[in-house]
Amino acid sequence: MAKTFQNFINGTWVNAKSGKTFENRNPANWAEVLGTFPSSSKDDVDEAVKAARAAFERWRLVPAPHRGDILRKVGDLMTARKDEIARRMTREMGKVLLETRGDVQEGIDTAYYAATEGRRLFGHTVPSELPNKFNMAMRMPIGVAGIITPWNFPMAIPTWKIFPALVCGNTVVFKPASDTPETATILVEILAEAGIPEGVINLVHGGGGAVGMAIVEHPDIDLVSFTGSTSVGKKIAELAGKSLKRVSLELGGKNAQIVMEDANLDLALDGVLWGAFGTTGQRCTATSRLILHENIYDKFLSMLVAGVKKLRVGDGLKEGTHVGPLVNEGQREVVEEYVKIGTDEGATVLHGGKRLSGGEHEKGWFHEPTILVNVTPDMRVAREEIFGPVLSVLKVSSVEQAIEVSNNTKYGLSSSMYTQNIGYAYTAIRDIKAGITYINSPTIGAEAHMPFGGVKETGNGHREGGWTVFEFYSEWKTVYIDYSGKLQRAQIDTEGT
Ligand code: NAP
Asked: Distance (Å, rounded) from C-alpha 316 to C-alpha 489?
């Protein structure tokens, strides 16, 4: 019988108030039920927020280095359980073990980074314009953070948000994606085991419309951090705007890898195979477009087809699998729909293009790695996010045209150029409108200690990762200490002594 999982509210594992549940299944074998989880509602969110609000008054007074110490322990516990977590993650969302291990490692890196940040969280001391007066600005916790996450990085993305939120002194109400409730549960178990006090982290499972919306609308939630689709992100921004909640949005992408005529083609091939088909194309930074200089177009395409033919599609738990299933039936239908949209618009399927069924593929949501050629920049498959193993190939004749095509989308997350020409490289860095540009590596590969995020409809200007994320989870308090013993008026008594 499938295991029953619960919410975590005020330090206790509990069912949804309604008693309702939903099932979590394996995308490589849909018949396999991995567990049942609470299908929560606004009532459960209310309880979680109440606990988080009360805990905030205690947690904000815990010295930040001690908050960091708990996160160091979290990192240690995750390290000890890395392989087990990776296996359970592959079972619940499909990507291959190599990648789920990387996902856990990103969480570990984020834990240790946040732990050390507990001893920094630097402020500023600044000279006053008046004598015998001291000025400083320091970081303060904000309150209760609502955290809403997607399924494609079910450990890394929650840790990017939850760990900085906690080390800054905020408490958390966490709603993970309905496709990956088990990985989220493991993370919260580990936080509890590491000694996080009751009410500081609260986990509420359930659907986006019910639980997610209740978090966004809750008057006692001070900030919302969301990663997911641009359409849901826009709804959240609109709703949260009504109460002026602080909101961080990390949304969709339509990332391109450019290969110039002078590139190392073997290197560029390794890059595009990993960037386009890793995580079955279900990464916000996935390489969804390949922009080839006309001089190497034919040669590179034949190399690409040969490379894609070697990719083994199957259960991510099996040794030798390169590409796992799509996360669910709906996501596979989206991929099929986009292949049709592309061919209806005049693109040609050079390789793949169909769902995989029969044999080991019969029970899961598998799709062939797919290459579309004769794609022009105006086509939907050249501009819209697909979130699957589909690569649209475009031909260009100059670096300027390559960058123009790369920019021809409403998104602006990641980008890549393969070239040996330093002039091309710096032009790309300057002119590609994206939050991230890689030179001679694929569009994927974020490191936990670097800022992560995008421009245009990929986000609203905040960054996760690195030092920048701590800006979002803290509020600046400006402090003036006047020890002159008299009234000193800024901008008026400015003569000095
Ligand atoms: P999604 O449908 O937008 O869902 C993301 C999260 O929001 C899930 O927890 C979902 O809950 C919840 N949600 C859904 N509707 C909601 C609503 N009305 N109010 C509040 N929460 C709601 O996205 P997804 O399909 O899970 O993820 C894929 C998308 O995420 C892609 O567009 C991808 O590019 C983007 N992404 C971006 C980044 C980045 O850092 N820029 C990273 C990874 C993924 P349920 O699961 O219960 O529906």
From this structure: 67
Indicate which residue's Cα is closest to atom 28 of ligand 1. 228
Beta bridge partners of 291: 258, 394
Query: Residue 231: what residue type?
Result: S
- 176 CA → ligand 1 middle, Å: 9
Annotate 445-463 with b (16+ C-beta within 10 A) or e (fewer): bbebeebbbbebbbbbebb
| Residues carrying an active site annotation | 250, 284
Residue located nearest, by CA, to atom 18 of ligand 1: 209
Which residue, 325, 324, 355, is CA-closest to 337?
Answer: 355
Cβ–Cβ < 8 Å for 285, 447? no
The residue type of 485 is: G
Span 3-251+459-478: which CATH code? 3.40.605.10
Q: In the structure encoding, which two tokens stand for residue 376, read together?
A: 């022009």
Structure-block tokens of residue 53: 């609000």
How confident is the model over 283-318, as pLDDT tens digits? Answer: 999 999 999 999 999 999 999 999 999 999 999 999
Reduced to 3 states (helix: H, G, I; strand: E, B; else coil), residue 486 is coil
Do the Cβ atoms of 211 and 40 come closer than 8 Å?
A: yes
Please tell me the distance from the alpha carbon of residue 61 to that of residue 52, in angstroms, as a whole number: 14
**If you measure from the C-alpha of residue 249 to the centroid of ligand 1, how many angstroms do you get, rounded to a whole number?**
10
Average pLDDT over residues 48-59: 98
Residue 2: what pLDDT? 86
Q: Which residues line ligand 1 (CB under 6 A)?
A: 148-153, 175, 177-179, 207-209, 212-213, 216, 227-229, 232, 235-236, 250-253, 284, 385, 387, 413, 458
Residue identifier of the C-alpha nearest atom 38 of ligand 1: 284
Whole-model pTM: value is 0.98
Q: Could you state, in order of their start, the residue ranges of all structural domains in the chain?
A: 3-251+459-478, 255-439
The CATH fold of domain 255-439: Aldehyde Dehydrogenase; Chain A, domain 2 (3.40.309)
Quick check: 34 and 91 in contact, CB under 8 A?
yes
Other Cβ atoms less than 10 A from the Cβ of 148: the count is: 25
Tokens of 183: 């990985």
- CB-based contact 476:449 (threshold 8 Å): no
- For the segment 213-239, what is each residue's pLDDT rounded down to a tens digit? 999 999 999 999 999 999 999 999 999
Instruction: Please give the sequence-ordered ranges of beta strands (E in DSSP) within 107-213, or none if there are none.
Output: 124-127, 133-141, 144-148, 171-175, 201-203
Within its chain, how far is the Cα of 341 from the centroid?
A: 27
